[in-house]
# Entry
Amino acid sequence: MKIKISRHYLYILLISVFLFLFVLVFSFGLLIPKGKEYRESRLELQKENVELRKYQNFYDKTFKTLKDLQSKNRHIITAFDTTFNPDRFEKKYKTFFSSLHVMKVERSKDEEGFATYEVNTTSKISSPKNFYNFLDALNKADWIIGVNFPIDFKREGEMIKSSFTMKVYTNNKDKNSTASGSVAK
Amino acid sequence: MKYSYIKPRKKTPVTPELQIVFTFFAMTLLMLIATYSFLLYKDYTFIQDKQSIIEHKKELEASIDHMQNQINFIQKQKALAEKIFTQNMVLKDSIANLFDLVPQRITLSRAQLLKNGLILYGITPNKDVYNFMLQAPLRSIFHKTYSSFYPAKNGWLMFVSTNYMDESQTEGLDSEN
# Structure
């Protein structure tokens, strides 16, 4: 039996076979591996996105915590940043005393990583109550100040002469420049 | 001389069948190449997106670290400030208690509050008033109490009362604060 195919149809058949082979090779050699890669990349990107969202959420949470902390402790933060000014201190707190003198601002050793300055103070008060009011006001001061021992109360006629040491705490960043310069009187 | 009444058909290798086959082939190839190009493009954008996500993550990480440091620092400031404020209040109460401790019949001329002690100078009508009304409460507070007297011009007694606490106890109080 002899199959008779015209030359024309033979060409078509050959081209079809070639195309078929090309499609097979292209699909299995390039398209399918690339498709797999695409799917993996997409999954990976999704994972990265999820992780990024977690980071973003944590960032938002931390940012909120920081802002809350900053707004709740604004007075403390500002007070630690403010360099001590003896003149301003005298002006502000002389109302509690009959007379107030702030002397000698000296750098002392750091405490808990903060720079500290010792300030000697002499004052005259008419009653211990004035001193209590001063201590109350000190906690709302523009600086972080602690009254230290020794405290000396001496009777002078109707007045009480008091002398005591105060410790001013500031941030340590200005250790070598602003603090030493601005605190020195 | 014409042998036929119809015009001869032009013979061409691109027959209509071949045209259909070529169109079909062209469409198939186009679709394949388009799909592959799409995948290539997507792959490229994925790489770009991933890169930008990684960079953004790094930026966020750095910001979070910076904020954490700030939070720690503020908490440290807050802790120290609160400690100082408490110390000031404790000091105020201590001074108030000291002045409350002194009875009306005894007059103080000087009081020195030390870190681990108290020195009082004053005048008392007699030793008994001093011993019962001032020394007794002082003894209950301090570990060591020394008193010395010398006569005043008006017949009363001037006194110096020196009172100390044990070092270990004051250190303990300091660390508690």
